[in-house]
Each structure stands twice: as C-alpha cells, then as structure tokens.
Write a structure and sequence with these properties.
It holds the Pfam family DUF3458_C. Helices cover about 40% and strands about 20% of the residues. By secondary structure, it is of the alpha+beta class. Strand 9 and strand 10 form a beta hairpin. Bound molecules: phenylalanine (PHE) and zinc ion. The site of phenylalanine (PHE) has 11 residues, from strand 19 and helix 2.
Length: about 850
C-alpha cells in the first residue's frame, strides 16, 4: 500500500466540470443495494481547457457506465474513476452509472450503512464517494432528485417530498448542495410532528423520526427546534426554505449530529429525552445541538465551504450562533463560563500539544481528523473577538452582507473576512493570523500606579507549534474594567486592543484601582499575572462582570491546589471563606454558585502545572484535590443540610435553566456532604430521585467515595433495556473509579455482555471514560495506556474515524515525567507499527509521535 498523501490548501483548483443536476435511484437491500446515478455535466468555464473527468468512488462495484447513452468500458481504481478527456464532448453531457454497495457490512458508519435494521447515511466529509461515483468535494453543488425503492415504511431524503407509493418514495431538493449534505433514511420509524409557520408565512411540517416506543421522548427536541427556527428569524433574519424539516435519531453514529439539507441525522442520545432518562446536561446539549444543526441550514448549507480547509467557516460560525442561542435561552453568564471551561479543557489542551493546528489548517492527510475543538470552539472564539472589535452593529451589517453576497456559494475565510472589511471599513490583515496560526497566546500583565496614573502593560507571547516555529503578534481584544478598593466600578468594561508584542495603556486614577482583565473571556488566551489571594477574593466578591467573578474564584482554587501539590500547603480561610460566601449567597443564580463550587479539574491542573514548568504527578493531583474537597466539606458542613433541603424542587420536573441550576447546586452540596456522612444523604437522595439528574448526581457522590455498588446494581436492573441510559452506567463507574481501580474496572466492563464495542456511544462510554479518568488513565503502571491502545487497535479496522478521534487521549503525553512519556511512546510506536493501520489513526499517531 502506498503512503497516504497530504492534501494542501495551496493546491486548490476549481473542479474541471460543473454538475447541473443529479438524479439518484436507490434499490435498497442489506448486502446488495443498487444505486443508479444520472449526472448532467458540463465543462467548468473556471477551468479553461479540455480535461479528464475524475469521479471519486470507494468500495463501489461498477455495474454499468454510459455517456450520453453510449456504454463506456472503463475500470475504476481504488479511489475513483477517470473518464479521459478524449472520450468527453466539449458541450454538456449526461453520465449514467450503476453501482452495487453493501450497507450491512459497512462498519465505518460512513456512506450508506445500517443501524439496527434501518438504513441511514453519513456523507460529511467524504462519505458520498462510498455511495456512488461523484466529484465528492464541497465546491461542486447541484440540485438532487432521489428515488428510494424499499419495502420499509418510511423512506426519506433531502428536500421536499415529490411522490410516494407502495415500496417507493421520491424527493426533490431544489437547493443546489454539495454531496456531503446528501442523506437518505429508510426504516420502521414513527414521527413526533409539529407544524411551523415561518415569518413570511411558509408552512413547514416538522418531524422527528424515531423507533416505535421512543416517540414520547421527542418533545424537548421538538420544542428546541421550534425555538431555534424562531430565533434564527429574529436574531439573524434567516428563514427556513423547504416545506418539511426532518430529524432522524440513529443509535450508531460517529459524531453528535449532521446537518444534511432538510434531513438532519442525529445520534439518538442528542434527541431522546425524558425527565426519567435524561440529565439536565443532556437537555442542555439537546437544545444546543438541535439549534446547531438547524442553524447550519444557512451557515453551512445555503453558504457552504469551498474546500475542507475552510471547515471553520461553517463550524466556527455555527458554534458561535448556537452559543448565542443557548445564552438567550438560559443565562449568558453561566453559558459563557461553561463554554470557557470546555474551551480550556479541549481546545487549549489541543493547542498546547502535538496535535495543535490553525483554525484554518493548511494541510491534512485525513479530513475527518480535523473536526476538532480548534476548528469548532476556537473558530467560534475568533468570531466572538471579531464581534467585539467591530461592535454589535458592525457584526450585524457584516452578517447581512455575508448572506446576501454569498448565498449559494462555496466560500472561504477570505470571503468571510472581506464582508467584515467591506461592512465596517476595518482592516483585518493582522486579525487573520487567528485563522492561520496555531497555539494559545500567553499574555503577561504588569501594573503600575504613581498616585495619578494607572498603567497596565501587556506582553503577548505566541508559542511555537508543530510546523510553525515563529509567529507574529495577534490582535487581542482585552475587555477591561477597573474597580475602586471599596468595590465601585470606576471604569466600566472597555475593550483594549493589543496589536503589538508589548503595549501599555494609561488611566487617570486617584486611588490604586483593582483591575478586572479579560472580562467575559474576551480572547482565547492564557493570562499570566501574579495576583494575591486577597485581590482574587475581592474580585470574587465585587466584580460586576460575572465571568471574571467566577474566574477569580477559579484562580483562587487553582493557585491553592497548585501549592498543595507542590509544597504541601493546606486550604486556608482566604479560599474557604470566599467559597462559603458565594455558596450561601441567595442573591446569586444557583447555577453560578454551583459552578463556583466546582473544583479545578485534574487534567486542567496538570496543564497549568506543566505551563508553569512543573512536571505534573497525576496521582498526587488526584489526592490533593480530594484533600481540598474534604477541607471544603468540613468548612461548609454545618450549613449543607439546610442548603440541600432548601433547594429541593417541589412539583414535577421541568428542564428549564432555573430548575436545572437549583439541582446543580443541590448536587454540588450533596457531593460535599458525602465526604462527611459516609454517603448517607446521597444514598437517600438516590432512592428518592424522580429524575435522571438526581439519580446520576447521587450515584456519582457515592462512587466518588468508593461507595455505590448496591446503587449500581439497582441502576442496571432498572435501565438495562435503555441504551442511552446504560451508556451512563458504564461511563460513570469508570470515570469516577479510584485511580488504582480504573483500569481493572474498565477491563471488567469490556467483558460485560452489554459492552457492544462496535457501537460508538458504548465504546466511548467505556474506553472514553477511562481516558477521562485522569489519574486512572495516567496510572504509573502504564495499564491505562495499554488498555486504551489495545482497544483503539481493535476498533480501527472497523471504524477508523472513531478510533482516530479517541486516540487524542494520548495528546498530552509531553507534559508528564520521563517514565510516563516512555510508556506512551511505546504504545504510540506499537500502534504505528500495526500492519494495515487506517489512514485516520495512522495520521493521528504520526502527529502525536512528532
Ligand atoms: N457537521 C457536523 C456538525 O458539526 C459534524 C459531523 C462531521 C458529523 C462529520 C458527522 C461527520 O454539525
Ligand atoms: Zn456543525
């Protein structure tokens, strides 16, 4: 086999031909589905000359090939089919192909595959080539007509229905689209339906298709969809553009969900919810993902990407939009804190390791490996910075221009930045570095006050990343506020623009102010500033910016935990009293208080220590973090029972943000209580729970203290028939296992009869849960590394995409001590040396080895 080759942005050329329209007929059969395709093609004026026609195609058995009705005798190669220029007319022509494929044996879950008796597709990024011969690239857009023949009762594809009868259905999608947005579903499904009327009066039939029996778990997803559709009309002026909008829930899915035009396909865990089976986090994620996929209808589908290097064009923007939506639906402050927690946990981790890449990468081997936190979450942060720099009005004008100028286009980041430049007059040449340069900038801050003037000096450092040893200064918007020592705000939020490596800003000040820097986390950077615990406690008590208020508490906790780990310090009153004040402050949102009670994560701590030049010891971080929780529990202990009682929700469960915040705080309090009472309160709460949030919350409290075996049995008995709930059962006991037991627990659960490792959700809830158990995965024995590598190698031949994604468990190896680094290096070498390793996993392992 030849070495997989990298694709480079600089090699982009428009396709040789244009596709005027596509007609597909599917005759579905598990091992012998016939796909016939009629493509009307013409030479592309953007590529002058007379060119071969190259069609992508993989694992297709070619049955017939005709050009303008005449049979052609050509043989495909492993990746496609070339029709030599000599055989092609210079005028428009019609190409007809018929192929046979085998959905039932398609374990990669890409292309057309089967999931428990139903047919479904996943085409992004390059799955359509596993369905038929086609120019499988996003800048080739065409209207599709689809006919499905099957005895299954529900037959769906993109666009509007165009007729159906016994054993067949036809669909027409009038909107030109790239092949990656194609979708087909066939199965024994039932719909949860609702009507929707758009702002201009178009009637839309909304359907969520699920297996019989699941239809009573669709109400929240439907409600989220309706709110998303309405929100996009008011916030962005974007209406839906077809007569139907279908969503299908699928149990076997590599990712979260997919925005296929008019036919979104979802991992069932992001659709199905009832109070008994879904936690508050599940409800929030369903709302966000339903919105995300819906918002893609404009940002992704109507305006798509020219090539896959531009992936952030649709993903960064759509994440930004779904974050705005969730903030509007819930609380902006809480949403921002949660988003930053996630950004730091996933994207900073990626940006600081061997897998770092720019928001817009310039080369890849396997594009599926670039659906990353950097493209998605940092891509959204970059848009947030743009919005801050040009203001809300400038942003609105730029977006209006984007939609009018590029509707129907396959666009680039250059196009995106041009609409901002044209709508606002702002030069974005330097800003563009955020798209082209990897790495998290570090910003150092010094302050000076001379009795009259207060001076803040910033210095930015842009660290080297793979392939990018040196980089220039970035445009960094720093939202700043200044407080008086009495807590009054003397400078309301003001955006400073850093554009140079070192820069100072001066403010008149009769008294020395306390600065609140990087309010709302106005840029994805690491702020380096020596701050006393007193000042942090002051900001936690007085900052008017809720994000920085939380940030002050978090920094206080991280400073303390770092000192506990490095020189055996103990929690003192500065931290304990500050947390107590927030915990019991009834004027604050309970969701905010719950976040303030959350201790720094172990992986976060390891990254921070590493950043400070200290080699993190996972076992020690684990035990010191525990000691920290115990100290806090003792400090708050006497007041916890009253808090737990006061937060009990009377009446039936509602999934709204207010109720969810109260439950979150109640469970945080219960978790501390469980460190004091031997798990009594949690065991009681477990048995009293009437919703999954409290059931899981109480179970975790027990597991964290080495308890809960009886409750695990009760849980398993009650939920053994529910896959999505059983995923939680697997994941929780591994993620919360004692570090010395995590590997053995995982290994034992891989032998459980319900460990269906070919199902991505189940694989993630077992193998992924081990890599989420920081001290367990990084156990000095190396057992965690070995077990994860074993399972990745087992999954890789069947499902390379999921194996490759999960290999990021190893991306942090450079942080750790020489022994651990050697253990990881051996596992990476073992994987690299495995014959037949996929291009997906091969690329990831290669990049991690450096
Ligand atoms: N485009 C999908 C989304 O972000 C993600 C996805 C990528 C799903 C690739 C499947 C395969 O909404
Ligand atoms: Zn997306």
């Amino acid at each position: 086999m030849s070495e997989p080759r990298a694709v480079h942005l600089s090699d982009y050329q428009p396709f040789t031909h244009i596709v005027r329209d596509v007609a597909l007929t599917f005759r579905l059969a598990p091992r012998a589905t016939r796909v016939s395709a009629t493509l009307r093609l013409a030479p592309n004026p953007a590529r002058p000359g007379h060119h071969d026609l190259r069609l992508d195609g993989e694992n297709l058995r070619l049955l017939s090939l005709r050009l303008d009705g005449q049979p052609l005798d050509l043989t495909p190669d492993a990746t496609g089919l070339t029709i030599p220029a000599a055989l092609l007319p210079s005028a428009p022509f019609t190409l007809h192909t018929e192929v046979e494929i085998s959905p039932e044996t398609n374990t990669a879950l890409e292309g057309l595959y089967m999931s428990r008796g139903m047919y479904c597709t996943q085409c992004e990024a390059e799955g359509f080539r596993k369905i038929t011969f086609y120019p499988d690239r996003p800048d080739v857009m065409a209207p599709f007509r689809v006919r499905i023949e099957s005895d299954l009762p529900v037959l769906l594809s993109n666009g509007n229905p165009a007729g159906q009868g016994a054993g067949w259905a036809e669909w027409v999608d009038p909107w030109p689209k790239p092949a990656y947005l194609f979708a087909l579903v066939a199965g024994d499904l039932v719909a949860h339906s609702a009507p929707f009327t758009t702002a201009s009066g178009r009637a839309v039939a909304l359907n969520i298709w699920v297996r019989p029996g699941d239809q009573d778990r669709c109400a929240y997803a439907m409600d989220s969809l309706i709110r998303s559709m309405r929100w996009d009309e008011t916030a962005y002026g974007r209406e839906y553009d077809l007569d139907v909008f279908n969503i299908v829930a699928v149990d076997d899915f590599n990712m979260g969900a997919m925005e296929n035009k008019g036919l979104n396909i979802f991992n069932s865990k992001f659709v199905l919810a009832s109070p008994e089976t879904a936690t508050d986090d599940d409800f929030a994620r369903i709302e966000a993902i339903i919105a995300h996929e819906y918002f893609h209808n404009w940002t992704g589908n109507r305006i798509t990407c020219r090539d896959w290097f531009q992936l952030c064009l649709k993903e960064g923007l759509t994440v930004f939009r779904d974050q705005q939506f969730s903030g509007d639906m819930r609380s902006h402050a809480v949403k921002r804190i949660e988003d930053v927690l996630l950004l730091r946990a996933r994207q900073f981790r990626e940006d600081g390791g061997p897998l770092a890449h720019p928001v817009r990468p310039d080369s890849y081997v396997e594009i599926n490996n670039f659906y990353t936190a950097t493209v998605y979450e940092k891509g959204a942060e970059v848009i947030g910075m743009l919005k801050r720099l040009v203001g809300d009005d400038g942003y609105a004008r730029a977006l209006d221009l984007y939609f009018t100028r590029h509707d129907g286009d396959a666009a680039t980041i250059e196009d995106w930045l041009a609409v901002f430049q044209d709508a606002t007059g702002r030069d974005l040449t330097q800003f563009k570095r955020w798209y082209t340069e990897a790495g998290t900038p570090r910003v150092k801050v010094w302050e000076d006050w001379d009795g009259e003037t207060y001076t803040l000096t910033f210095e930015q450092e842009n660290p080297p990343t793979p392939g990018q040893p040196e980089k220039g200064a970035k445009v960094i918007p720093v939202a700043l506020g200044l407080l008086n020592p009495n807590g009054d705000e003397v400078l309301p939020t003001t955006v400073l623009e850093l554009t140079e490596t070192r820069q100072s800003f001066r403010f008149p000040a009769a008294a020395r102010p306390v600065p609140s820097i990087l309010r709302g986390f106005s840029a994805p950077v690491i702020l380096d500033r020596e701050v006393s615990p007193e000042e942090r406690a002051f900001l936690l008590a007085h900052d008017t910016d809720p994000f920085n208020r939380w940030e002050a508490g978090r920094a206080l906790a991280k400073d303390l935990l770092a000192r506990m780990v490095t020189d055996g310090a103990s929690p003192g009153p500065d931290w304990l009293d500050a947390v107590a004040r927030v915990t019991f402050d009834d004027t604050l949102d309970p969701a905010f208080r719950a976040l303030a009670l959350r201790l720094p994560g172990e992986d976060d701590m390891a990254a921070t220590l590493h950043g400070a030049g200290i080699t993190p010891d996972p076992a020690r971080i684990w035990s010191e973090r525990r000691r920290m929780a115990e100290a806090l529990a003792r400090h708050l202990g006497p007041r916890l029972p009253a808090l737990i009682d006061a937060l009990a929700e009377p009446g039936p469960f509602t999934p709204d943000a207010r109720a969810a915040g109260r439950r979150a705080l109640r469970i945080a309090a219960l978790s501390l209580m469980s460190r004091l009472d031997g798990g009594r309160a949690a065991a009681t709460a477990y048995r009293a729970a009437n919703n999954m949030t409290e059931e899981v919350g109480a179970l975790v409290c027990l597991l964290e203290n080495g308890l809960g075996q009886e409750e695990l049995r009760l849980f398993e008995t009650r939920w053994s028939a529910d896959r999505n709930v059983m995923d939680k059962w697997f994941a929780l006991q591994i993620a919360h296992a004692h570090p010395d037991q995590a590997v053995a627990t995982t290994d034992r659960l891989t032998r459980h009869p319900a460990f269906d490792w070919k199902n991505p959700n189940r694989f993630r809830s077992v193998i992924g849960a081990l890599s989420a158990n920081h001290a367990g995965f990084h156990h000095a024995s190396g057992g965690g590394y070995r077990l994860v590598a074993d399972w990745l190698l087992r999954l890789d031949p069947l499902n390379p995409q999921t194996a490759a994604r999960m290999s990021t468990a190893f991306e942090t190896w450079p942080r750790y001590d020489a022994d651990r680094r050697a253990l990881v290096a051996a596992e990476l070498a073992r994987m690299a040396a495995t014959p037949g390793l996929s291009r997906d996993l091969g690329e990831m392992v290669g990049r991690m080895r450096g």
